[in-house]
Every structure is written in structure tokens, then in C-alpha cells.
Write a structure and sequence with these properties.
With 296 residues, the chain is an alpha/beta fold. The chain has one domain: UDP-N-acetylmuramoyl-L-alanine:D-glutamate ligase (3-Layer(aba) Sandwich), CATH 3.40.1190. It is built from ten helices and twelve strands. The protein is globular and about 45 Å long. The N terminus is likely disordered. One of its GO terms (cellular component) is cytosol.
């Protein structure tokens, strides 16, 4: 399960366009690339979200339908517009995003509780930071009650994030800038990331992942730290790379749980790296036949 999702407004220095996106929906798209006969045949996905009663929301619903996503818990509200996120991408492929939450903030703990059966039957519950903390925490608590593994992607970062969200996360995942916001520590190197991860472990998470863009990712537990390198490439558009990583990791947690975590991270980094070689978010995510067979 992912928490709320937004429509995405994509803007670069070279062009302008609109497409579906949002942290949660991109994570869903990553674990379920666009070929119906590929990953979708082995990964059942359900989303829990709300969109506005507007053109963006209708486009989103059509996108779900086209991708055969279960929309049982997809709501449409007249109280707010579908969330949007203007994005600027520079010549180096780096991005800057402004999130306008909209319908995302209409999700309540009661809404989440109505999806308890979905959570109970899941292999992995993936949450992120675009809905209210109360709704996110409810999802994490229900997952723990039913012994379902949780993966919390705390993006966008919130310096005042409820400590209980960290405590109820089996895996707490952020990028380097998000780690800086949450810990007030500089995160520029692998060693910096390990220090920030230690701070987050002390706040209650069972394990922490800090992604480092082209430098891979650090995985930390009470037993120590492990670093996974990423392949060096020239990025076209880094937007959505973190979501590709999280989505791929969720897939491995659900369907290859016996893999060592370092191997899961290595494979997730390969998927994320592939996503930065094309413009856009969901549209840049590779299908299974575009990825090396050893990833599966």
C-alpha cells in the first residue's frame, strides 16, 4: 500500500509537459513497470488515496485503469483539488520540486482504518510523506499489528515529523537532503550518511536507508552500516529516481525476501539508475524487458 499520490506537472528548461506522478504513484509504477505481462503478472498492487474532482483527478483515475491498478480505495473529493507538483529540471538533470498537496491532506485516520483488510493481506506496506502524519501513522500501526513489513519513505521531508512514525517503520528511507532536514546534520558523504542514520536509529527505526543519488545508498541497523554503490551514468532527469528505488525495494521485500538486504539495495539502485536516463517520472521507468534478467 502507498499513501497519497499527486498529479505531476513537469517543467524543464527545455520543454513543458504534464504527466501522472507523485511519490506514492511513482513507487507503484516502479515496482510495476508499464508492460502488463511483465512485473504486473506477479505483483498485486493496491493503492489507497484521494484525488480531486477535476481534470487532473480524472486523468489519474484513467491512468490507474490503463495500468490495471485496484482502485477500491481510490476516493474522489470535492473539498480540494488534486495535488500537483511543479518541477524544474536543469541541464545536469537535477530537479527542484514544489508540492501543492491539495486532496492529499483530506485523508484521515478513519479512511485508513477502512482499508485494514487490505493492509492485513499485504506483504509490504509502503508509506510516504504527502498525506497527514495522523493517517500515515495509522497505516504503520495497523501494519505492525498484523505483522506486515513497513517501508516508510519520508518524502517530502518534515523537520517536525512525528517520532512515532519513525518508531513504527521497519525500514525508514530518505535521501541525503531529507536526512539533513530530519537530523540537522550535514549529509555530503557516505560517512555523513552513516552518522545521520545513527541519529534516526536512535529515534526508534529498526533500520535506516539513506540514498545518495549517484553515490548509491547506505543501509544501517544497530549492527552496523553497509554501503551499496551505484553505476556512474550521465543523468537526463533525476526526477522520480528515489521513488523508483523505493518501489523496486518493495518488490524485492515482497517477492525475494530471502535476498540479503545489500543485494536488494544493489538491485534497487540499478532500477533507479535506469530511471534517470530518460525524461519524466513514470514514463522514465524501465519495463522488465529493458532491465537485466538477473534482477529478477
Amino acid at each position: 500500500m502507498t499513501a497519497l499520490h499527486t498529479a505531476l506537472l513537469a517543467l524543464s528548461w527545455f520543454d513543458y509537459g504534464m504527466c501522472e506522478g507523485g511519490f506514492g504513484e511513482e513507487e507503484r509504477s516502479s515496482v510495476l513497470p508499464r508492460d502488463t505481462l511483465d512485473w504486473r503478472g506477479i505483483f498485486r498492487r493496491q493503492l489507497f488515496l484521494q484525488v480531486g474532482d477535476d481534470s487532473f483527478g480524472q486523468n489519474y483515475l484513467q491512468n490507474f485503469k490503463d495500468n490495471k491498478v485496484d482502485t477500491t480505495f481510490v476516493g474522489v473529493t470535492k473539498e480540494a483539488a488534486t495535488g500537483v507538483a511543479p518541477i524544474v529540471v536543469d541541464d545536469a538533470g537535477e530537479n527542484c520540486i514544489i508540492i501543492v498537496a491539495g486532496a492529499n491532506l483530506k485523508m484521515t485516520p478513519g479512511d485508513v482504518e477502512r482499508a485494514e483488510a487490505m493492509i492485513r493481506g499485504a506483504s509490504v506496506v509502503v508509506c510516504q510523506g504527502e498525506i497527514t502524519p495522523a493517517a500515515t501513522l495509522t497505516a504503520l500501526r495497523l501494519a505492525r499489528t498484523h505483522k506486515v513489513k513497513t517501508l516508510m519513505n519520508a518524502a517530502p521531508a518534515d523537520a517536525s515529523l512525528d517520532a512515532a512514525i519513525i518508531e513504527h517503520s521497519d525500514i525508514f528511507c530518505v535521501n541525503e537532503s531529507e536526512a539533513e532536514v530530519l537530523t540537522k546534520l550535514k549529509v555530503k558523504t557516505r560517512e555523513d550518511a552513516e552518522q545521520a542514520a545513527e541519529a534516526l536509529l536512535q529515534r526508534g527505526s529498526r533500520s535506516v536507508i539513506i540514498t545518495l543519488g549517484g553515490d548509491g545508498a547506505v543501509y544501517s541497523t544497530a549492527e552496523g552500516h553497509a554501503h551499496t554503490a551505484a553505476q556512474k551514468v550521465t543523468p537526463v532527469d533525476t526526477t522520480g529516481a528515489g521513488d523508483a528505488f523505493v518501489g523496486a525495494l518493495a518488490y524485492y521485500l515482497a517477492y525475494h525476501p530471502r535476498l540479503a538486504m545489500k543485494e536488494m539495495l544493489h538491485r534497487a539502485c540499478q532500477v533507479a539508475t535506469a530511471s534517470v536516463l530518460a525524461p519524466g517520472t513514470q514514463a522514465s521507468y524501465p519495463t522488465r524487458d529493458q532491465l537485466p534478467s538477473h534482477l529478477f
